[in-house]
Design brief:
Number of helices: 19
Number of strands: 32
Strand content: 25-35%
Shape: elongated
CATH topology of the largest domain: Rossmann fold
Distance between the termini: 88 Å
Number of domains: 4
CATH architecture of the largest domain: 3-Layer(aba) Sandwich
Radius of gyration: 38 Å
Largest sheet: 8 strands, antiparallel
Length: 625
């Protein structure tokens, strides 16, 4: 069985459904309204065995302009187009639009059926055939065979089947090695089985009992049974009309236009970068994007990259997309086909970049991976994301990534999550960190350095913590930066106060030294010296690092000498009296309660004393020296 789907195309009432019934024996108009009106509204599905014995799927699409949405839903699964043109009417508006759509979707082969042969004489039939040849000359059907047929008299049907058979043999089958994706075009329920969805498997293969999810809804399920051409199978492969019985889901849980995919592989998106083929420029009224079997409203921004049309599409509802997926664009009002395109990046992370798009349009698949990594920036890109974007590449991706890692074009910085970054961002991040530390020193010369978290948060746009750590450690190992406790400093840097603050520094040190155990608070120092509190705090911190002062709390500081005296007096008192209370502290340092309590809390904090009820005891037998 060749994995090929034949699909009709053509104007309304040109006999598409009648022709399919004549060659397959199946009436694709299953709705009561379709039979009453003689008008195809919904997609129709059938299968047939060709003269060679090959069985193929068949999709019959509506021809009326009002049902173009349904036509597009079916056209996404077609491999071989059967263009139907009535001999008594010739080429009509929907004939042209359907051919444009097939071309934009990348359908490469087709057959033209000149129907209703029994309604015209030989001269008119010859004239109609000539008009059709002129019409298809500039399209993908330029070499397509034209077969005159009548579904009523069955004249020409054997020839049509032989021609279809020959063309099917030339069709390239879809990728089986990729990650499976089933765009849903029909949802129904079968008594005793439950919910069934159908579609043309776009790539990969589905197997019995596979864990799947329905996106964008996010509902998970398991494949209970699979049918291809009404026969139970263990595996369905790309290009097959596939019916999947999903466990635990109701028909109301799934809509046409959603995707059935392996669980945990794909992420939905509202943003796409794409290569475009435009028939006309979009207006201001927005666009409708047709991708798989979905129809989604959105907007588009147009660009030109190396003389080729490209665009960024913003969608109002999420879709599932991978590199190379084809889509159709139509205007919202009036409803006309604008063109189509091919998805390049289904998850753009940054502003539209010509450099990234140029890489993604390249023939070299390794450069396409590079383009994705460039777009991901300092956040990096996971192997899982790369696999999902290039869903049809299969195991080729692993070899390509290995080569890029070996050359240094990509750098893996998180082995657990298989995260990679483009090599140039590693070098840029090193420069950013060195520059950030330097700028911090210039603004804060009295500070010993910048904290890790402050340095990381200063990076514009953010950076993955593990990448930050990797690059920082590289710089520390090379000696470009140094690390002391929580702070990072540049090579050779030592903290110092600016010369114009030397007098203030000494004044603060003298004031605190002279006040002994009743030092002035920060606000009082700022007022006395007529300095901003921020500057006083900076000087106090510097004096603490120099060992001249000790911080008691945010408001109080003692000279180093008085802090040592405080500890010695407390030790002696506790050794003689077994414990020390708040009132005792006031006595031994000759200070009021507003100082005594902070001193007690400070000694607790440094583990010199330990609180037992309201009293303090030495934290060790002899206390801390």
């Amino acid at each position: 069985m060749k994995r090929v789907v034949i699909g009709t195309a053509g104007h309304v009432d040109h006999g598409k459904t009648s022709l399919i019934k004549a060659i397959t024996g199946i009436d694709c108009d299953r709705l009561k309204e379709e039979k009453e009106r003689g008008l195809t509204i919904e997609l129709g599905f059938a299968s047939m065995v060709l003269p060679s014995g090959e069985r193929v799927g068949v999709i019959d699409v509506p021809g009326h302009v009002r049902f173009i949405r349904h036509m597009l839903s079916g056209a996404s699964g077609i491999d071989l187009a059967l263009l139907v043109i009535a001999a008594d009417e010739g080429v009509m508006p929907q004939t042209r639009e359907h051919v444009q759509i097939c071309e934009l979707l990348g359908i490469e082969r087709g057959v033209v059926a000149l129907t209703k042969k029994d309604l015209v004489d030989e001269d008119l039939l010859e004239l109609a055939a000539g008009d059709v040849k002129d019409f298809i000359a500039g399209t993908f059907l330029k070499d397509a065979p034209i077969v005159a047929v009548s579904a009523t008299t069955r004249e020409g049907l054997d020839e049509l089947l032989a021609v279809l058979d020959a063309q099917v043999a030339l069709v390239r089958e879809r990728q089986v090695t990729g990650i499976p994706v089933l765009p849903v075009d029909r949802v129904f329920s079968i008594k005793g089985f439950g919910t069934v969805v159908t579609g043309t498997l776009a790539r990969g293969a589905f197997t019995h009992d596979m864990e799947v999810e329905v996106l964008p809804a996010g509902r998970t399920s398991k494949i209970r049974t699979i049918q291809v051409h009404d026969m139970d199978v263990e595996t369905a492969q790309a290009g097959m009309r596939t019916a999947v019985n999903l466990q635990g889901l109701a028909t109301g849980d799934i809509d046409r236009g959603e995707w059935v995919v392996p669980a945990g592989v794909f992420e939905t998106t509202r943003l796409l970068d794409a290569r475009l083929t435009l028939l006309r420029r979009p207006g201001r009224g927005g666009i409708r994007l047709y991708l798989g079997t979905a129809e989604v409203l959105g907007g588009i921004s147009l660009y030109t990259v190396d003389s080729r049309a490209a665009g960024r599409i913003r969608l109002k509802t999420p879709v599932v997309a991978s590199y190379g997926d084809r889509f159709i664009l139509r205007s919202v009002s009036p409803s006309v086909t604008l063109g189509g395109g091919v998805v390049l990046n289904p998850h753009p992370a940054r502003r539209f970049s010509e450099e990234v798009i140029r890489d993604l349009m390249h023939d070299d698949p390794a450069l396409r991976i590079v383009g994705l990594a460039k777009d991901a920036g300092l956040h990096g890109i996971s192997r899982r994301r790369i696999d999902a974007v290039f869903a049809d590449a299969g195991q080729k991706t692993e070899k390509l990534i290995a080569g890029l890692l070996s050359s240094g074009e990509l750098v893996r910085f998180d082995a657990a999550n298989d995260l990679m970054v483009h090599g140039m961002y590693l070098e840029r991040l090193k420069e950013v960190l060195l520059c950030g530390v330097k700028q911090y020193h210039e603004k804060n010369p009295s500070s010993p350095g910048i904290s890790r978290e402050h340095l990381r948060s200063s990076i514009q746009g953010g950076v993955d913590p593990k990448l930050f750590h990797r690059v920082l450690q590289d710089l520390i190992r090379k000696g470009d930066l140094s690390e002391s406790g929580p702070t990072i400093a540049a090579k050779g840097f030592s903290a110092s106060m600016a010369s114009d603050h030397t007098d203030s520094l000494e004044a603060i040190a003298r004031a605190i030294e002279a006040a002994a155990f009743a030092p002035p608070r920060v606000a009082e120092l700022a007022e006395q010296l007529r300095l901003p509190q921020r500057k006083v705090m900076e000087i106090l911190a510097f004096l603490c690092r120099e060992g001249r002062l000790v911080r008691i709390n945010d408001e109080l500081y003692l000279s180093g000498e008085h802090e040592r005296a405080l500890r010695e007096r407390v030790r002696e008192f506790i050794e003689q009296n077994q414990a020390l209370g708040p009132a005792d502290m006031k006595t031994i340092v000759g200070a009021t309660r507003k100082y005594a309590i902070p001193f007690l809390e400070y000694l607790d904090r440094i583990h010199f004393t330990i609180r037992v009820g309201d009293a303090r005891k030495l934290a060790t037998a002899r206390g801390s020296s």
